[in-house]
Design a protein that fits this description.
The chain is mainly α. It has a single domain, classed as Up-down Bundle (Growth Hormone, Chain: A). It is built from 17 helices and no strands. It is globular and about 55 Å long. Its main location: membrane. This is Major facilitator superfamily MFS_1. It is found in: Cell membrane.
């Protein structure tokens, strides 16, 4: 794509705004779905199942979506994902039982996959390599801002409504918020259309998933990303349960989760300064290990102020790991396979978000909800060790 003109330069701020609104929706709605699951009689096992199905279809379709985007269909994928970021929220608000809520959760997960792949792929398709890290930083900053706004907004609306309809009313409110992504998607269209590549032409330069996975650095980067996303999801799903067990209100829990995302905003604001001082992989393995230690301690220290400290440290580290792994995998592939490697990374994320919550939900039956944080924290520490090893092999 050529140099931006004043007429189309607004598309990238539009994409960041879209990201803010979409992720405000995803995070606010997901914690509300946890409370709605409990209202409808769901147990800790069902909470883990809800978290798993959110990522099940995206896991199976991520590479296909990436190939579509590599062929020039990023804006079409973005539009489809935007619609699937609105309608499932309304369905969750109307859900009369856990089955319907499960369908809404799964559909919202597909919407997040589509918007995420398209948004990430538009960056290498539109900017030179020298600008990619900063643009990914802006995009992930939008993710963190959205998460920071969405969680307390959902909690405050729920707490402001008395009676049995509090969670339902909050879901309707979040439906209205998610509808604003449609306006932002119109602004993204100012970018202009990417030329489409035929299936035959795309197949000539396409590398198989196994070839892409064999690229040096892909597996450690994906594992670090997987461990982080699983920890974030499990924290969002199970902190309400920890909160209930310790007498914390919905507002307190959502503010604690918002504190985590606010810490991610701060770390992403300073990621340029941090990467100028330390090598990317040094920063990545340190962040993974520190996040792991913090997550393991969550069920041990249940006082709100201590949870605030632990979630702040974890959130700061989470904020670094995602853009660092994004830039890492983007640099490993050529232009014809860039969306594909980003999709493989996302598929890895979704695999972790299916397998780890499923295992966690089963373990809660035997060992209680605290085991979820022990397991996800241990995986983060292991990811830090794998990245450390790759770093020392390179240098």
């Amino acid at each position: 794509m050529g140099a931006a003109t004043p007429a189309n330069r607004a598309w990238f701020p539009g994409l960041v705004i879209h990201t803010v609104l979409a992720h405000a929706t995803y995070n606010g709605v997901r914690v509300l779905i946890s409370y709605r699951t409990l209202e409808l009689g769901g147990s800790g096992f069902v909470l883990g199942l809800m978290t798993a199905v959110y990522s099940l279809v995206p896991l199976l379709t991520a590479l296909f979506v990436g190939r579509l985007v590599d062929r020039g269909y990023a804006t079409a994928v973005l539009w489809t994902g935007t619609v699937l970021s609105v309608l499932p929220v309304a369905l969750a608000a109307m859900a009369p039982n856990l089955g319907v809520l499960l369908i809404a959760t799964m559909s919202l997960g597909v919407g997040q996959l589509l918007t995420t792949v398209a948004s990430q792929a538009l960056i290498p398709q539109s900017f030179p390599a020298a600008q990619m890290t900063s643009k990914f930083g802006h995009l992930t900053l939008g993710v963190s801002i959205g998460q920071t706004v969405g969680l307390p907004m959902a909690g405050m609306v729920a707490d402001a409504t008395s009676g049995d309809t509090a969670i339902t009313n909050a879901l309707w409110f979040m439906t209205a918020v998610s509808a604003l992504t449609l306006i932002a998607a119109v602004i993204v269209m100012l970018r202009g259309r990417t030329p489409h590549v035929s299936r035959a032409d795309a197949a000539e330069g396409a590398q198989s998933p196994w070839t892409l996975l064999s690229l040096r650095g892909m597996k450690p980067a994906i594992f670090a990303s997987m461990a982080t996303l699983a920890a974030v999801d499990l924290m969002t799903a199970y902190l309400p349960l920890i909160g209930q067990q310790n007498g914390l209100s919905v507002t307190t829990v959502t503010w604690l989760l918002a504190l985590r995302t606010l810490a991610s905003v701060v770390s992403r604001l300073f990621i340029g300064s941090l990467t100028a001082r330390w090598r990317d992989l040094s920063l990545l393995w340190t962040a993974s290990a520190m996040a792991g230690i913090s997550v393991i301690l969550i069920p041990i220290f249940s006082q709100p102020w201590m949870l605030g400290v632990l979630l702040t440290v974890a959130g700061f580290c989470f904020g670094l790991t995602q853009p660092l792994t994004m830039s890492w995998v983007s640099a490993l592939a050529d232009a014809k396979n860039r969306a594909a490697v980003l999709s493989i990374r996302l598929a890895g994320n979704r695999l972790s978000q299916v397998a780890i919550p499923s295992a966690a939900s089963a373990l809660t039956v035997l060992a209680g909800s605290g085991i979820v944080f022990t397991m996800s924290g241990a995986l983060l520490i292991l990811a830090g060790g794998v990245t450390w090893r790759n770093h020392h092999e390179r240098w």
